[in-house]
Amino acid sequence: MHNEIQGDVIGEVWRAQEGAKEITYFLVRGEDNWFRIEYTGQYMVERAEYMAEKLKNAGLVGVDYDTLTVGEPPNLPLRTFNLVKYIQIKA
Q1: How confident is the model at residue 70, as a pLDDT?
Q2: Could you tell me the pTM of the whole model?
């Protein structure tokens, strides 16, 4: 499913590592699921860190995303995230 939303970044901005990916997570007011931005490649750490800092100071974001359901370790439920395809940040 493909969606678009515009809103305020709220709460914490989280960074994570998953295999060969660097991931940045954030919430948007009115959304239940966390937004997830995945980075791979040579500059993935720098790019994820840069985006996390931008989001911490963001006022408004416009996000184009797909729904992503990912597996967790055994015996834990699947988690659904909004996988960011495009983002525009307004400070």
Answers
A1: 80
A2: 0.85
